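INFO worker-7 received task bundle
INFO bundle size: 2
INFO processing item 0
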Amino acid sequence: MIEVSRTLPVNEGTGPVLTVDDVWQGLVDKAQNPLLYVAAISECTVTERFDGGLVRDIVHVGQPVREVVTFYPKQRVHFVRTHGTAKGTIDNEIGLGETGEPELTFTFRIAVDGVESGSSAEKEFGERMEADYLDAVRTTLKAVRDRVAAASGASD
């Protein structure tokens, strides 16, 4: 099982300043249409919607994956990978840091079919996945910032 958790500040001196509401809207949009946010995802079809979430089929690094996505408004988006070679959970969580500024934490707990726990192959997979998700968090924040700037008529 690969377990990684990283927290990034939402506002790193780049404007416009994002609020929790801005980040939340971006996370919901990313769950529904990840192609704009996650370079490793090449396809996404939302197959079902339910009160508080959705089910989606994605293609992640060329592999088909099914995820059940649950929304915890303005706090967390929880993904459960139920089908695919890498199963487990992924969380995108909004929090406030010590200074009261918003932070975005991503955490994943993934087991990869056919890969021995603790092996170098598992470590390599985990490192690639961590790099992909760090990029996705940064891309998400940039997309949210671009949307907020466009809505307010501001520019970078």
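INFO item 0 finished
INFO processing item 1
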Amino acid sequence: MIRLAAVVMVALLAGCAGAPKKSDSGPVPPVAGKPRGSAGQAGGAPATEGQAPPLACLQVREHRDEDYTPGGLYAPGVSDSAPEHALDISGLVEPVPQQEPLSRYGNRSPYQVLGRSYRVLPSAEGYVERGIASWYGQKFHGRHTSNREIYDMCSFSAAHKTLPLPSFARVTRLDTGESVVVRVNDRGPFHDGRIIDLSYAAAVKLGLDKTGTARVEVRALSPEGGAPVLAAATAPSVDDDARPRIIQVGAYRERANAERIAREIEQAGLRDVAIEAAETASGTFWRVRIGPLAVGATHQALERLRRLGHASPRVFSE
């Protein structure tokens, strides 16, 4: 049975940040076909149970097709920025490398952006590179990525010019040793000397939100034997944190949409599905969540959700 839990939360609508642009993001390479939409889905980051989504994660920009020219930049006259409010990433769980089919979109090779041609690698296996990392944020939050998922600046993701979509990588800041695991689902950055564009949350994890850019090592991760390992060396497992997990499948303006998604998930065999009401300054959103789940059950649930077409569920610790 679907549990309906009303969690009333009041949040102030975040305004556009007045901070100067920290990092330029690359554009989405041209793709064919109509985007696979997420109509009615609200921007918002993982939050602990009973708390409102962080103000930093509210979408403040409307995205229009006419703002993007194929092979060019997205809204070149609009500066990117950090959110006005601080983002707490303490409850955000890094993605776990797992086997995923190549995305239907975003893997065309070669592709051209700004007159330059790029070839997508046939595999992420063994990829290691050092160079400059940048980040992209509020300007792109809620927009389609190159593989037609929705960019969520409050999750650990990244854009890369040539890694297959999706891929997983560990990004290590060379001057501090701090690292973060990201899921690569976008293309960019299309700027000389930069090798990866991190989501805002990943930038906060490495301190790039303060420095703008930094020298990093990007090392591909691949699943092997059911556990995340480096493509070229062993990596620390993110499963050391054994706290129960909550999966947020999405947040919807219409309750009927949330109920339809919840029924679909239950019919696929998933348990502990709940619908929660979240009150924000922009209206009521209905969140579909699963859990709490053990770590192993979380991995299985995420795989089922992706097979159902939910490519970007959010996971956080209870």
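INFO item 1 finished
INFO post-check item 1: The chain is about 10% helix and 30% strand.
INFO post-check item 1: The longest strand covers residues 214-224.
INFO worker-7 idle
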